[in-house]
UniProtKB/TrEMBL annotation:
InterPro entries per record: Cro/C1-type_HTH, DUF5753, Lambda_DNA-bd_dom_sf
Protein name in the entry: Helix-turn-helix transcriptional regulator
Pfam families recorded: DUF5753, HTH_31
Residue ranges constituting the HTH cro/C1-type domain according to the UniProt record: 22-75
Amino acid sequence: MPARRVVTGRSQEPRRRYAEELRRLRTARGLSLRALAEAVGWDPSLFAKLESGETLGSPEVAEALDQFYGTPGLLLAMWEMALGDLTQFKEKYRRYMALEAEALSLWQYSVSRPPGLLQTAAYAQEALTAGGLSGKELDQQVEARVGRRKALEGKGAPPFRVILAEAALRNSLRDPKAWREQLEHLLEWSERPNITLHVLPFGTGPHGLDSTDTMFLRLPGGRTVAYAENDVWGELIEETNKVEQLHRTYDEVRDLALSPAESRKFILRMLEEVPCDPSI
């Protein structure tokens, strides 16, 4: 006899479960969205979007609601689970994202943009909009991209080495203030003990990763996989010989790049080129 399916009446998808729990807590108190907003201090439209699953909001909102409802830590934990829900990623990235979450160390080469793990929300928004996303899907993907960075924080965070082609640092945002924040963000994160950042300046000549963004993940058990992509395709590479060959090419590119100290000086010089905000 097949096992009985447990029916709870609630979604088991973390993002939907979070939205349902927020709605349940509010209605149990007999509050309207406007009354809740007045009590907690945010706009009613935000709570409407939270309860419909249109957005996850910020951890500060989850913490404020935990305090208001007397559910210490519960809603924040549900928010973190919803943020990490792999169902918000496109199908071709799902297996890669699952492996990235397990990685003990990461190495990346970025051709034309700062790596997703180190993008600000403003950069992610503009990059994803250029890729054709809009509306609810855009909001979800921005949240997901920024949320991935949590894996690099805290005790036990994996080492992450990044080689940035100079083109990635010349591909600026339209808003100078947002672009300045992105460059400052890279500098700030490069100071973390688990982050190593190299810049590959123009003029180093052709190499084997000229047009391909590449990420390597070292997994538990010692296995390493790679994910390579350009504007047309993306491929998860798991065959040992291919990964080793690609990693040798990565090492050759790293040898051409600036040292971490010189790379920081390079980005600082770029910051001096960004127009200042005239309102300051």
